[in-house]
Design a protein that fits this description.
The chain is 83% helix and 4% strand. The longest helix has 126 residues. The two termini are 19 Å apart.
C-alpha cells in the first residue's frame, strides 16, 4: 500500500462544548491514504471536524489505556464512554434540529414579511381611494357653491325685472296724469265755449245756427274725450294690476329661490363636512395602521438580519490537505 504524507492541521476552534486550548501548531504525520480516508469518513459520519476527530481518537486511546491500567473499572469506563457518546449524539441531534428550526423560522418570517408588504400595499391603495373620495367631496362642495352663486345671480335678475316692472308702472302713471291734464284743458275750453254762447245770444239767427252747430260738435268732442279717458284709465288700471301681480309673483319666486338656495347650501355644506370628517378619520386610521405595520416590518427585518449574521458566523474548521 502506498503511503502519502498527510498534513493534519488544527486551528484554534472554540465552541460552547469546547474549552479554550493552547496555541495550536501545525504538525505533519505520515499515514496511509486508506487510513486518512477512513479518518475523514469517520469525522463526517459523526459530525466532527478533523481537529475534533483527532481529539476524539486520543480520548479513545486514553480510555483504553485507563481500562488496561484499571481493569476493575473497565465496566465503568465503558459505561462512561457509552454515555459520553450518547451525549455527543444528543448534542449533534440538537444542532440539527436547531438548524432546521432556524430554516423554518426564516421561511416563516419571510412569509410574514411578504404578507406585511401586501397589507401595506392594500392599505396604501385604500388611502389613495379615500383621498380620491375626499377630492370628489370637495368638488361636490365647489359645485354646490357654484349653484348657490348661480341662484344669487338669478335672484338679482329677478330683482332687476321687478325694478323694470315698477318703472313701467311709473311710466303708465305718468301717462294717466298727462291724459288727466288734457281732460282738464278740454273742460276749460268747454267753459269758454259756454261764455261765447252767452255773448252770441243777441246775434243774428245765422250766428244762432252756427252756435247750435258748435254746441253739437262740442258735445261730440266731450263724449269722445270722456270715452278716451275711460278707456285709458281702464287700460292703465289693467296694466298696473298685471304689473303688480307680476311683481308679487316675482317677489315670491325670489323669496322661494333665496330659501331653496340657503337650504341647498346648508345641506351641501353639512354633507360635505360629514364626508370630509369621515374621510379624514379613515385617512388617520390608515396612516396609523401603516405606521404600525412599517414598525413591525422594520423589527422583523432587523431580527431576520441578526439571525442571518449569527447563522453565518462560526469557528474556522481545521482541514487535512
Amino acid at each position: 500500500m502506498n503511503e502519502t504524507e498527510q498534513k493534519i492541521t488544527t486551528t484554534a476552534a472554540q465552541t460552547e462544548q469546547q474549552k479554550p486550548k493552547s496555541e495550536i501548531k501545525q504538525t505533519n504525520f505520515r499515514i496511509a491514504q486508506d487510513a486518512a480516508d477512513k479518518f475523514r469518513a469517520y469525522c463526517e459520519a459523526n459530525g466532527l471536524n478533523q481537529a475534533q476527530g483527532f481529539d476524539h481518537l486520543i480520548e479513545i486511546l486514553d480510555m483504553d489505556q485507563a481500562k488496561t491500567a484499571l481493569p476493575d473499572q473497565a465496566a465503568d469506563i465503558d459505561l462512561f464512554k457509552t454515555q459520553a457518546q450518547d451525549l455527543i449524539n444528543s448534542y449533534l441531534h440538537a444542532l440539527s434540529v436547531s438548524a432546521n428550526f432556524q430554516k423554518l423560522a426564516t421561511e416563516h418570517h419571510w412569509a410574514d414579511l411578504v404578507g406585511a408588504n401586501k397589507t401595506i400595499d392594500d392599505l396604501r391603495s385604500q388611502l389613495d381611494a379615500a383621498k380620491a373620495a375626499q377630492k370628489a367631496s370637495e368638488e361636490t362642495v365647489a359645485a354646490a357653491l357654484q349653484s348657490a352663486a348661480q341662484a344669487d345671480k338669478d335672484v338679482q335678475q329677478a330683482k332687476d325685472q321687478a325694478e323694470t316692472a315698477q318703472q313701467l308702472a311709473d311710466e303708465r302713471e305718468k301717462n294717466i296724469n298727462m291724459l288727466t291734464d288734457k281732460l282738464r284743458v278740454a273742460e276749460e275750453k268747454a267753459d269758454g265755449y259756454d261764455a261765447l254762447k252767452e255773448q252770441a245770444q243777441t246775434a243774428e239767427s245765422v250766428l244762432k245756427a252756427l252756435q247750435t252747430e258748435m254746441d253739437q260738435k262740442l258735445k261730440a268732442a266731450e263724449k269722445d274725450s270722456e270715452i278716451a279717458l275711460l278707456k285709458a284709465q281702464s287700460e292703465a288700471d289693467k296694466r298696473i294690476a298685471e304689473a303688480q301681480a307680476k311683481t308679487k309673483e316675482t317677489e315670491q319666486r325670489l323669496k322661494d329661490a333665496e330659501k331653496d338656495a340657503r337650504i341647498a347650501q346648508l345641506e351641501a355644506q353639512a354633507k360635505a363636512d360629514k364626508q370630509i370628517a369621515d374621510q379624514q378619520s379613515k385617512i388617520e386610521h390608515l396612516e396609523a395602521r401603516i405606521q404600525e405595520l412599517s414598525a413591525a416590518l422594520d423589527a422583523a427585518q432587523k431580527a431576520q438580519k441578526e439571525k442571518s449574521q449569527k447563522a453565518q458566523e462560526g469557528p474556522e474548521s481545521p482541514s487535512v490537505d
